[in-house]
């Protein structure tokens, strides 16, 4: 018994040493937004007060556009993910993008509400604040879920819809990013509110690219530093709990508007077959598949993917 007790004591000692070393090496507490704005919110970024939050946004392009293009990013992303598309679209159209509650530099919702209904209400409040009566709504991943849910709630306001590897159905990801898995584990997600290995962020970003070699150190910097924005990590865990896919999926066939569905054929988070499911459920929709791209095709290859959008919107 003494030998077993000694072995157990030794194991506990080794584990405690390894755990201490892990926390020392990966210590990454929350950072106030004021420390992040210089690098990640230069002009044309502005912050506007909406729904009790100081929302990070960019509003660019043609000012008299009667139906601006509004871009909604996905989980753990930010408005920066659309940069390539914005550069291509803003000479002809007004393009609006913002960090959704719980993400980017906008940060957590003041009431801790991350239901899909609350996100729809937030997007509606943003459009009201900006005086946008009609728009083309675009969304990737969770942002795609928010986009089509908003189109259901505001059919008179959303003229056209673009879904980019969109969420909303109940699905089993073949290989979800490790960061997403940790965010959904009750104990680990609390531990990672004060630690965040940069390697974990890098592996998560590489997992959503069709060609991981396209992931640069600068790209990882952006995802890593913005993840540290005060409150974002706790909000991410709450978002996974509160905004479950499938809640509104039965209503997707009610969408009656021109819809473009873009998908990466190497998406390991939301399978490419989902594009065909949206296509079947949304009458008159069209699908463009990019066989070599992953879950964020707009970020991975903005030139090729935005060309499909410009065709859909008849932009020369």
pLDDT < 50 runs, ≥5 residues: 5-25
For CATH, the homologous superfamily is named as Alpha/Beta hydrolase fold, catalytic domain
Determine the strand fraction and express it as a percent band: 5-15%
User: Helical content, roughly?
Assistant: 40-55%
Write the layout of secondary structure elements.
Blueprint: H1 2-26, H2 37-40, E1 46-50, E2 53-61, E3 69-72, H3 83-89, E4 94-98, H4 116-130, E5 135-140, H5 142-153, E6 158-164, H6 178-183, H7 188-191, H8 198-207, H9 217-227, H10 232-242, E7 259-264, H11 273-281, E8 286-290, H12 297-300, H13 302-312
Parallel strand pairs: 3-4, 3-5, 5-6, 6-7, 7-8
Antiparallel strand pairs: 1-2, 2-4
Overall description:
Helices cover 41% and strands 15% of the residues. By secondary structure, it is an alpha/beta fold. The chain has a single domain (35-312), classed as Alpha/Beta hydrolase fold, catalytic domain (Rossmann fold, 3-Layer(aba) Sandwich), CATH 3.40.50.1820. A hairpin with a 2-residue loop joins strand 1 (46-50) and strand 2 (53-61). Helix 8 crosses helix 9 (217-227).
Task: State the gist of this model.
Helices cover 41% and strands 15% of the residues. It has 316 residues and is of the alpha/beta class.
Descriptive labels:
41% helix; 8-stranded mixed beta sheet; alpha/beta
């Amino acid at each position: 018994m003494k030998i077993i007790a000694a072995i157990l004591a030794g194991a506990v000692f080794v584990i405690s040493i390894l755990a201490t070393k892990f926390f020392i090496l990966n210590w990454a507490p929350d950072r106030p937004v004021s420390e992040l704005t210089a690098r990640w919110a230069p002009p044309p970024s502005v912050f506007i007060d909406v729904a009790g939050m100081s929302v990070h946004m960019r509003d660019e392009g043609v000012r008299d556009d009667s139906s601006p293009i509004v871009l909604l990013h996905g989980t753990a992303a930010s408005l920066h993910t659309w940069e390539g598309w914005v550069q291509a679209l803003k000479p002809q159209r007004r393009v609006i993008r913002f960090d959704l509650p719980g993400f980017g530099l906008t940060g957590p919702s003041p009431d801790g509400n991350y239901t899909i209904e609350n996100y729809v209400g937030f997007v509606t409040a943003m459009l009201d604040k900006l005086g946008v009566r009609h728009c083309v709504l675009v969304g990737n991943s969770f942002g795609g879920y928010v986009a089509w849910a908003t189109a259901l709630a505001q059919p008179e306001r959303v003229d056209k819809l673009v879904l980019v590897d969109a969420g909303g159905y109940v699905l089993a990801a073949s290989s979800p990013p490790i960061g997403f898995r940790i965010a959904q584990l009750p104990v680990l997600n609390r531990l990672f509110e004060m630690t965040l290995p940069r390697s974990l962020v890098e592996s998560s970003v590489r997992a959503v690219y069709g060609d991981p070699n396209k992931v640069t150190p600068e790209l990882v910097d952006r995802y890593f530093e913005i993840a540290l924005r005060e409150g974002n990590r706790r909000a991410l865990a709450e978002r996974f709990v509160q905004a479950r896919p499938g809640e509104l999926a039965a209503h997707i066939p009610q969408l009656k508007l021109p819809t473009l569905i873009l998908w990466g054929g190497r998406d390991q988070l939301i399978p490419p077959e989902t594009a065909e499911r949206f296509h079947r459920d949304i009458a008159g929709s069209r699908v463009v598949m990019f066989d070599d791209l992953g879950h964020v095709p707009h970020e991975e290859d903005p030139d090729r993917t935005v060309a499909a959008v410009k065709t859909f919107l008849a932009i020369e």
